[in-house]
Automatic annotation (TrEMBL):
It comes from Acinonyx jubatus (Cheetah). One of its GO terms (biological process) is sphingolipid biosynthetic process. PANTHER family: VERY-LONG-CHAIN (3R)-3-HYDROXYACYL-COA DEHYDRATASE (PTHR11035), VERY-LONG-CHAIN (3R)-3-HYDROXYACYL-COA DEHYDRATASE 4 (PTHR11035:SF16). This is Very-long-chain (3R)-3-hydroxyacyl-CoA dehydratase. The chain crosses the membrane at residues 15-32, 140-165, 185-206. Signal peptide: none annotated. Its EC number is 4.2.1.134. The gene is HACD4. Belongs to the very long-chain fatty acids dehydratase HACD family.
């Protein structure tokens, strides 16, 4: 006897993924809408306290996104683990280690710029993924999800690098995360951040190459209108 549709593993997997993508889409849409309304209401002043206004929701969304690594590991989401891991760790390190730990950095314009870039990418990505799970596909949305990252992702990495650069004086003066070890050894965190800066650009090259290959595969069957002669 066949199981009811709602009891079948594929149905339950798709239902879970749809709910997950929907939650992420709603969270990022709320952040982007909030930032837009605040900017038109308060102008440049809204950029200074972006983190105080929406930082909590952003941290929740980025924390939940770590589930995507689990999705890939258990096979309910078809994706490559390493590129996704690099993208997620980029944001987690910048958001939780660099921005959240230093109040002076939270007031920088670069935080607002980063949040805009992150949310633009995620709103499109989660919309595309959410509809794909239920078998709905739009050519324009497919093309946008596979193309928008091309100019924005490098700008994200540049903004992340600039956020690290601006945070260095505050980490040097406060000594946050710098610790002394036995045998007269020590971890000086600004040096760790400078090394991470180099790794950030190496990771960008790897991730960009992967996303470009993925885009080429997805858009192979993309409909192209031919001009009538």
């Amino acid at each position: 006897m066949a199981l009811p549709a709602w009891l079948q593993p594929r149905y339950r997997k798709n239902t879970y993924l749809f709910i997950y993508y929907l939650i992420q889409f709603c969270g990022h849409s709320w952040i982007f809408t909030n930032m837009t309304v605040r900017f038109f209401s308060f102008g440049e002043d809204s950029m200074v306290d972006t983190f105080y206004a929406i930082g909590l929701v952003m941290r929740v969304c980025q924390s939940i996104s770590l589930l995507e690594l689990l999705h890939i590991c258990v096979g309910i989401e078809l994706n490559h683990l390493l590129p996704r891991f690099l993208q997620l760790t980029e944001r987690i390190i910048i958001l939780f280690v660099v921005i959240t730990s230093q109040e002076e950095v939270q007031e920088k314009y670069v935080v607002c710029v980063l949040f805009i870039f992150w949310n633009l990418l995620d709103m499109v990505r989660y919309t595309y993924s959410m509809l794909s799970v239920i078998g709905i596909s739009y050519a324009v949305l497919t093309w946008l999800s596979q193309t928008l990252w091309m100019p924005i992702y490098p700008l994200c990495v540049l903004a992340e690098a600039f956020a690290i650069y601006q945070s260095l004086p505050y980490f040097e003066s406060s000594g946050t995360y710098s610790t002394k070890l036995p045998f007269d050894l020590a971890i000086y965190f600004p040096y760790v951040l400078k090394m991470y800066l180099m790794m950030l650009f190496i990771g960008m090259y790897f991730t960009y190459s992967h996303l470009y290959s993925e885009r080429r595969d997805v858009l192979q069957g993309f409909p192209v209108k031919k001009k009538k002669v």
